[in-house]
Amino acid sequence: MDALVLTQRHVGKIVELCGRDVFADLVIDRLHRALAEKSKGVAPARAGFSRCHGDTGSIEWMPYHVPGDCMTLKTVSYTPFRTTKRQYLPVISATLTRFDDETGRLTAMCDARLLTAIRTGAASAVASRLLARPESRVLGLVGAGAQAVTQAHALSRVFPLEQILVHDIEASHAASFADRVRFLDLQVRPAGLAELVATADIICTATTVGVGEGPVLSADGLQPHAHINAVGADLVGKTELPLPLLRAALVVPDHLDQARHEGECQQLSEPEIGPRLSAVCSHPERWAPYRHRTTVFDSTGHALEDHVALDVLLQLAAETGVGERMLMEHLPDDALDPYTFAH
């Protein structure tokens, strides 16, 4: 069996043919459904290696296994530091692979840089749709990097947004954000943290703050109904939100074990942590009253999100006929002799 290979060019072509809104909507809806149905898949906490440069980066792997069906595996590198080699490269690089569970054979692989950004935005949209006020109109973004684009896009698909306030310690990032999300046709402008916190109904923090250098957001002046998607915490000791804010809020993690290790939940004791996102998706009526209180989605990146995003990509690849099939594996004529080659 040949594996379907989707390069950056193929992924871009699929988005071009189907439209970014269709792609985002499919991932949001499929992810919501998968979480609500408590998928039978198994997703252990991600593991990996810390890198050099003061342990500010990492190379990790995130598996998702559906017994009897398939296994999806993402390898991802996080490199927030800038060197000569990385001067113009994105902070996150990723590759997704899928294996047949019965044969163990590789069935698909793709570049996952865009998919990672889309599925992270989709997760925030799912959580916000359940925990934020439905009439939310002002989005605040703390951190105006690549992830902020898909956060804004996904949230615009599920809320009647009218304005986006942007804050970044790199003024040029905040200044260029309006051009990067021009396709949303929303009012976008840079703002100071105090104004952003006091005005936004929904806030997304997606920063590269260093280990031990947080928080990046103050609880002072926060609207009492504000919902926060905390996206940037992904290392031990790296957090974006102040502890008093977390203790005053309903904190909902995506993956509990992972969030306690490297998310905002690493600041909290077990009784201070709220339900998992899957529980909120399964029983939305139970948590609906919290839409009028402060809520936090602790988004560390669940492998289920990658699995769902790959499902969507493979479906659209089949519908559009985009992709390349390749025999990636060595299949000898004689299974007992690795030096024979199948023809």
From TrEMBL:
Gene3D superfamilies: NAD(P)-binding Rossmann-like Domain, ornithine cyclodeaminase, domain 1. GO terms for cellular component: cytoplasm. It comes from the Bacteria. InterPro entries: NAD(P)-bd_dom_sf, ODC_Mu_crystall, ODC_N. PANTHER family: KETIMINE REDUCTASE MU-CRYSTALLIN (PTHR13812:SF19). This is Ornithine cyclodeaminase.
